[in-house]
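@channel sequence for tomorrow's demo:
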Amino acid sequence: MTLSNPTIDVRSGEELDSQRLDKVLREIIPELQGSPSIQQYASGASNLTYLISYRNRELVLRRPPPGVKAASAHSMIREYRVISALKSSYPSVPKAIYYTDDESLLGSEFYLMEKIEGVLVKNSLPSAWNFSNADRYQFCKTVFDKLIQLHQVDYAAAGLAEFGKPAGYAERQILGWNKRFANAQTADVPGFEDVREWLEANIPDSKASNIPAALIHGDFRIDNVMIDPVDPFNVIAVMDWEMAALGDPLMDLANSLAYWVHADDAPALQAMKVQPSDAPGMMRREEIFAYYAEQTGFDTSSWDFYEVYGYWRLVGILQQLYYRYANKMTKDQRFASYGQVVTHLGEHCRQLIAKSAL
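structure tokens (generated this afternoon):
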């Protein structure tokens, strides 16, 4: 069983200056002993995450990627603020240690947090768990219970009332992702103007529904949670809060289900598998949706819109990453095929729209 998040040698172009880093960290934590060993976490395609190991302490450092980035993306202060505020009301977050926007220190803003010792589930469930189909089903509930709990947090009491503007959130998301997609256009990917227009025309009226504004994670997946190494039905930490906001919780659920791949899905969706959602006994998208609706009591009559939005947002994320690769802003080979994936996911959005009753 793999504890924590596996690390790799730092990727080319994403290095940290060890001497400069050591000087900065000793100003923050004077008791550090020895010289820092720097490794990079292999997971994650957006912000960069490093394991900094000293003789007496291990730290996790998060910073944005190099190159031109979307204006609202890769926000370190957003991550730092939300995990700092949630520690008492939603304990399943890492302990925040330090944040700075002083780019003269390491070349970018960054923050530090504690290292969590747990199990990171990637493409398959650990064989040591010896799960039955019923266990896998229960594991899904365990994970999605964390999303449901998050959406029920009193964010004002947690000190996050000014974290965002929930009014008009859905419209801002649609207009924002449409704009970001257009700004990251490449010649080999269709423009999908019809998908963009349909989403803009079908934004739900938040005033007419019973869906309360909630603190949303923005990227909630199995591979963004850490599991208790002793009890696999206990999530000890939810990670990667860079897209957290106050807004429509059904959009958060749709974001999650866009990554939820079934064994009988079309190849376009199979290409996005990042978690063992296709294992025997795992809940299907429609079961997760029904469970979430039952637990929250939210109005889900406009789910067709949310489902298309979830995939379209994923299209926007992947196209931004592909744009960076196509324009030689990164050498990360993971992004090389994203143009084709974007095209297939955009077509999937069209298929969902064709079947929608909205």
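heads up for whoever presents: The mean pLDDT is 93.
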